[in-house]
């Protein structure tokens, strides 16, 4: 098996430095249909992505999954794109998709989902706050119990939280969930965990109709799943808070609350037409 070295830009010297030696694998992208697409939205993530990509590649190879890993660069101004391109030279599973400019996490997830080719498409945060091995639980819900979507949840079993957020963040999350239940009429304990999987073809209409581009997109896609009669499982997963989170409790929290009203208005205005084939 050939070897190569992943290189990324050193911002201090604007040169390239060797990061690590990795084993290359033969391409499987053009042979058989893909089982799984893993979408990683990324904005200025050159420091966290190496560990994340190493972990995801190790997971899909250990499981023998026919998979692709799509990193969606959301207009980063660091070395994110260069890093992903370097990884893709040795890992045939990895490909880079670019938004061009900064559009937000919701837009990035939508872009990645519509680019995906796997039977199941899963998105995860760039910090892997939920370990990628927890994907087994979501995939099992889809394949063994015939759910259309499965969402990771921190609230179903809080004993699985390994590193907690601050008390303020946790209380803000609980309050937001109550507002989601009241305004949206969806009864999940945790809509905001960034670890969700979908049967791609069945759920494509969700992402075709999704309009919220930033952090408030999760309630929208779950609202759309309900609107189209799709079955969604809420699955307890392990989770650890990362201090590098980009969510601002005050500013983003207010915007997310306003997004709930926008979603409701979109529904009233007919912007989410029901699929005639919905269950």
Strand order of the largest sheet: 5-4-3-6-9-7-10
Low-confidence stretches: 1-30
Terminal residue distance:
48 Å
Total count of domains? 1
Q: Tell me the CATH superfamily.
A: Spore Coat Polysaccharide Biosynthesis Protein SpsA, Chain A
Mind telling me which CATH architecture this is? Alpha-Beta Complex
Structure summary, number of beta strands: 11
Give the CA-based shape.
globular
State the order of secondary-structure elements, H for helix, E for strand. EEEHEHEHEHEEHEHHEEH
Characterize the biggest β-sheet.
7 strands, mixed
Measured on Cα atoms, how large is the radius of gyration? Answer: 19 Å
Averaged pLDDT: 88
Named CATH topology? Spore Coat Polysaccharide Biosynthesis Protein SpsA, Chain A
Structural class label: alpha/beta
């Amino acid at each position: 098996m050939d070897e190569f070295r992943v290189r990324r830009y050193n911002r201090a010297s604007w040169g390239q430095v060797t990061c690590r030696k990795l084993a290359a694998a033969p391409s499987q992208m053009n042979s058989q249909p893909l089982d799984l697409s893993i979408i990683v939205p990324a904005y200025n993530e050159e420091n966290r992505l190496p560990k994340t990509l190493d972990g995801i590649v190790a997971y899909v190879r250990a499981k023998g999954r026919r998979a692709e890993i799509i990193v969606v660069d959301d207009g980063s101004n660091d070395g994110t794109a260069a890093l992903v391109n370097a990884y893709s030279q040795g890992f045939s599973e990895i490909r880079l998709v670019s938004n061009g400019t900064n559009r937000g996490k919701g837009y990035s997830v939508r872009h990645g989902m519509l680019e995906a080719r796997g039977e199941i498409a899963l998105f995860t945060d760039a910090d892997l706050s939920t370990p990628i091995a927890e994907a087994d639980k979501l995939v099992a819900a889809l394949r063994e119990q015939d759910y259309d979507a499965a969402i990771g949840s921190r609230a179903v079993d809080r004993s699985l939280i390994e590193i907690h957020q601050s008390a303020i963040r946790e209380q803000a999350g609980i309050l937001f969930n109550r507002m989601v239940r009241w305004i949206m009429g969806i009864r999940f304990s945790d809509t905001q965990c960034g670890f969700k999987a979908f049967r791609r073809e069945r759920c494509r209409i969700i992402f075709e109709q999704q309009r919220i581009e930033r952090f408030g997109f999760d309630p929208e896609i779950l609202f759309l799943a309900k609107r189209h009669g799709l079955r969604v499982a809420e699955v307890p997963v392990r989770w650890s808070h990362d201090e590098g989170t980009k969510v601002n409790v005050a500013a983003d929290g207010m915007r997310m609350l306003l997004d709930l009203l926008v979603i409701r208005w979109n529904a009233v205005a007919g912007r989410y037409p029901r699929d005639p084939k919905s269950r």
